[in-house]
Amino acid sequence: MSTRKPLIAGNWKMNLNHLEAIALVQKLAFALNDKDFDRVEVAVLPPFTDLRSVQTLVDGDKLRIVYGAQDLSQHEGGAYTGEISGAMLAKLNCTYAVIGHSERRQYHREEDDLVNAKVRAAYRHSLTPILCVGEGLEVRQEGAHIAHSLGQLDGALRKITAEQAKSIVVAYEPVWAIGTGEVATPEDAQEVCGALRVRLAELYDTEVASAVRILYGGSVKSGNIAGIMAQPDVDGALVGGASIDAAEFTKICRFSDMPG
Ligand SMILES: O=C[C@H](O)COP(=O)(O)O
């Protein structure tokens, strides 16, 4: 039995302004109770413009919800128009920073070197990376999905020490299952999540491999979460569309009450 605390993280993507963010976090705080937070870590990942409002609410009401950003700059500061630094996110008490999401890789041409630089930037500011890996449809059809995902993991972890790697969160998100309603089967999720854990043991050691939480992401809903969470190497979910619906996200956080 793993001692890893499950993590359910809601990636809001480019949805909800800061007022809507407050309303959603309030609804979640009202719906979830201490028993839920004892069992599961619940994180929200709002757009940058919402973070200060979320911080104020979480601090003011002493909520057990944690939060983070959807990206960060690899740079420390200076003339990088439009970028947000790790120091800025740390100042807002962010716990997490998503790095290498497939939408960043696809629309902003983020490659493994940049992803690695961002992982290192996150650690410089004590932010926990939620490192996303996963294959597109063509790679899956060729049967190269494991090699592809392991390659992205290797690339992201260059120059990352075992001590740092222990705290990373890895999210396996098959691109063909994101926002498509096409969910990978629990066995598909386990196949890659298990391979990622084996690779962590090869890159570091079994202590690191058994400490790291590996999430699944891609069309997660209350109706499919239980089967996914029943897999031995899946420690949570990175939820997109369903995370901006308070009732649905609450049910996902209560995955152990959902039918498998
Ligand atoms: O970060 C979340 C993933 O991209 C999954 O998004 P989705 O749940 O809308 O498929």
Automatic annotation (TrEMBL):
InterPro entries in the cross-refs: Aldolase_TIM (IPR013785), TIM_sf (IPR035990), TrioseP_Isoase_bac/euk (IPR022896), Triosephosphate_isomerase (IPR000652), Triosephosphate_isomerase_AS (IPR020861)
UniProt keyword list: Cytoplasm, Gluconeogenesis, Glycolysis, Isomerase
Gene: tpiA
An example Gene Ontology molecular-function term: triose-phosphate isomerase activity
Binding-site positions, substrate: 11-13, 179, 219, 240-241
This protein's record includes keyword RNA-binding: no
Organism: Nonomuraea purpurea
The name this protein goes by in its record: Triosephosphate isomerase
Keyword Isomerase attributed: yes
Catalytic activity: D-glyceraldehyde 3-phosphate = dihydroxyacetone phosphate
Complex and partners: Homodimer.
Known function: Involved in the gluconeogenesis. Catalyzes stereospecifically the conversion of dihydroxyacetone phosphate (DHAP) to D-glyceraldehyde-3-phosphate (G3P).
Active site location: 101, 173
The protein's annotated pathway: Carbohydrate biosynthesis; gluconeogenesis; Carbohydrate degradation; glycolysis; D-glyceraldehyde 3-phosphate from glycerone phosphate: step 1/1
Family: Belongs to the triosephosphate isomerase family.
Transmembrane feature ranges: none
